[in-house]
Specification:
This protein has 163 residues and is mainly beta. It is built from two helices and nine strands; from the N terminus they run αβββαββββββ.
């Protein structure tokens, strides 16, 4: 994953279209998140990668809660200042809630939804996603790894700079 992200970031910028750098505030089933996102446009397609941290757990509970995400966005409706289309996004989050090795939980999310952006150089946007959320952790009673799944959702607001 690290090698793929490094190759993605070091590709020649002249091959692609517009690049974007965004800061976002999002709400999901697991926490409120704040983060940054990098995107690169290839025609109507936009590939994105980002990093976020859980505000409640990281700031108020003093447990760092990182989340990495990657996705793809297709602009179905593309006007001079407005873009709208479907987005698919995968994210992985990790939470250590105690110092013992069994005291950690991994969250895998695969979502699809709708994204819109408005503006030229400076943009605002919103993303609404629904999908699956899988939590993987240790069952302390039986000392076995447990995986449980449920519906997940993400509501995200963004401030974007395009270059």
């Amino acid at each position: 994953m690290k090698k793929l992200l490094l190759i993605f970031l070091l590709c020649d910028l002249t091959v692609s279209g517009q690049n974007t750098l965004a800061t976002s505030l999002s709400y999901s089933r697991t926490d409120f998140f704040h983060g940054v996102e990098y995107g690169r446009a290839f025609g109507s397609w936009n590939v994105l990668a980002g990093f976020e941290y859980g505000i409640v757990r990281s700031v108020f509970q003093s447990r760092f809660f990182p989340k990495v995400k990657a996705g793809i966005f297709y602009s179905v409706l593309q006007k001079e200042k407005f873009r709208l289309g479907p987005v698919v996004q995968y994210s992985y989050a990790y939470l250590r809630y105690s110092k013992v090795p069994e005291g950690e939980t991994h969250y895998h999310e695969l979502n699809a939804g709708l994204r819109w952006r408005y503006g030229k150089k400076w943009q605002i946007g919103q993303t609404l996603l629904v999908g699956g959320l899988w939590e993987q952790g240790m069952n302390h009673m039986y000392k076995k790894t447990r995986i449980s799944g449920t519906w997940g959702y993400v509501i995200q607001m963004e401030c974007i700079y395009a270059f």
